[in-house]
Amino acid sequence: MNLANCSLLNPLRPFMRPLALAALGIVSTVVAVPSDGAEPADESADQSVVFEENFENGIERWEVLDPKTWKLSKRDGSMTLEITARSSEYKPPHRSPLHIALIKDLTLESFEMTFKVKSTKDTGNHRDCCVFFNYSDNQHFYYAHLGARPDPNSGQIMVVNEAARKNLTENKNETPWDSQWHQVKVVRDAASGKIEIYFDDMSKPHMSVTDKTFTKGRIGIGSFDDLNAFDEIVIRKR
Question: Over the chain, what HEC string results?
C-alpha cells in the first residue's frame, strides 16, 4: 500500500493521522528524548556503586603510605596495583600492616567491596593480603588478614585501636593461596556491627564477626608484609 496516496490519510489533518495509522494496524515506536537534549538515563545502572578502579588511568585516586614499595604493573593483559617489597619505610605507631593503599575522598559506614587479588610470592604460613576499612588514622581501623594458615595473628579480622593489632575472630579456615587470581568480598554493616569476609566462595563467609568499635572511615588494600597484585575494585554503598 502506498501510504502517501492512501485516501484514508490524505484528507486528514496531521494530528488525526496517528489515529488512522492505528486503525490500519500500523504501529510506530516512539523514543522519548529529554527536553534538555540529554541522553535517557540508563535504568539498569547500579546506583549503589560509589567507586570503581581498574588502574588503567593510574593511581591518582589512591594514597599509598609507602610509594616506594608499590607500582603499577601489567598482568594478564590488565593494569594492576602491585606491592613490590616485603619491607617498608612506613613505620606504624603500633604493630600492624606495613603496606597500605587508601582510597582518597571516600568515607563510608556500611558498604560492600569486591576485588581481585593475586599473591605473587609464597612466604609460607602467613602469606596474606589485607583489606582495610572504617579507617580514620593509623591508630584506629579494622583490617581483614587473609593469611594462609590461621593463628591469633594470621587469617583473622583485626582491630587496631591505639595498640598493637588484636584479633576479633578465632577463624580456623585456611586461605588457599596459589599463583592464581582470587576474588575477595567484604561486607560491612555499621548499624548491626556485622563484618563478613569472603574468599572465592561468595555464598559463605570465610570469616565473620560483629563489632562496633569503629563505624565510619576510609577503605584500602594491602598486606602485612607480603607481595600482591590488585585489580577490579568495586565498592557499593549499603
Answer: CCHHHCCCCCCCCHHHHHHHHHHCCCCCCCCCCCCCCCCCCCCCCCCCEEEEECCCCCCCCEEECCHHHEEEEEECCEEEEEECCCCCCCCCCCCCCCEEEEECCCCECCEEEEEEEEECCCCCCCCCCEEEEEEEECCEEEEEECCCCCECCECCEEEEECCCCEECCCCCCCCCCCCCEEEEEEEEECCCCEEEEEECCCCCCCEEEECCCCCCEEEEEEECCCCEEEEEEEEEEC
Side chain identity, residue 126: H
Q: pLDDT, tens digit, for every residue of 113-160?
A: 999 999 999 999 999 999 999 999 999 999 999 999 999 999 999 999
Amino acid at 178: D
For residues 93 and 237, give the distance between their C-alpha atoms in angstroms, rounded to a whole number.
30
Q: Among 170, 181, 188, which residue's Cα sits nearest to residue 232? A: 181
CA dihedral sign, ordered 121, 122, 124, 130: positive
Q: Per DSSP, what are the bridge partners of residue 39?
A: none
What size, in residues, is the chain? 238
How far is the C-alpha of 135 from the C-alpha of 150, rounded, in Å? 23
Entry pTM = 0.81
